[in-house]
Amino acid sequence: MEETISLRELMQTLRKRMSLIILITLTAILVSGGVSFFLLTPVYQSSTQLLVNQSKSDQSAYNNPGQIQTNLQLINTYKEIITSPVILDKVSKDLDMKTGDIQSKMTVSNQNDSQVVSLAVQDTDPAKAAEIANKTAEVFQKDIPDIMNVDNVTILTKAEVGEKQSPVKPKPLLNIAIAMVVGLMIGVGISFLLEFLDNTIKTEQDVEKVLGVPVLGSIAKIGETKAEKRSRTIEERGERIG
């Protein structure tokens, strides 16, 4: 019985504060949408892929699991070299950019222990992002034989700028959805907080709860209703006319 009453009180609180909850939720949605569409600068991403395979002089070892495992272990080393100054300094000189700026825009990864390394670059200009990715891949492929005395890196795909390329961030719809959930949670939280802080007595049930005794009777509000007042006014006007 107590659980039923508690649930009923919760629903009553939500209904009573529904306008506040809706107002806070709509405000969060409008703010998130305005920031996402009008204030945040779109960021685009371009990527290129590099294949780390066996040495060209050791083609017979392709089916050797040990050779493949060695290549997989080298990928982590290659990922560090790609983002190191020894590569990015040359890229920055060719593109007339700062090394730190290029490094902050770049992400190097590989999935499922594959021998394919993905080099992704994010920039507010999609053409610039593709240029940085391609130049970094070219410099890395050219310099890696001198750095590690190997020749086992191949550029699989080059970064390209697509027509009407969509930005990777911000994502307005996702931001609006998150803002709606957060706004709803804040609205509900504030509603329960206001209800908890409100210790005024409004109904007979509040009297029973505070005093712990049943209510034997109540006094109706004394005063004429609007209908009664309107009827009295009409009667007075009739008497004046008569």
TrEMBL record:
Keywords: Cell membrane, Membrane, Transmembrane, Transmembrane helix. Gene3D superfamilies: P-loop containing nucleotide triphosphate hydrolases (3.40.50.300). GO terms for molecular function: protein tyrosine kinase activity. InterPro entries: Bact_polysacc_biosynth/exp, GNVR, LPS_length_determ_N, P-loop_NTPase. Residues 3-95 form the Polysaccharide chain length determinant N-terminal domain. The chain crosses the membrane at residues 20-40, 173-194. GO terms for cellular component: plasma membrane. It is found in: Cell membrane. Residues 147-193 form the Tyrosine-protein kinase G-rich domain. The keyword S-adenosyl-L-methionine does not apply. It is a multi-pass membrane protein. Belongs to the CpsC/CapA family. This is Capsular biosynthesis protein. It comes from Rossellomorea marisflavi.
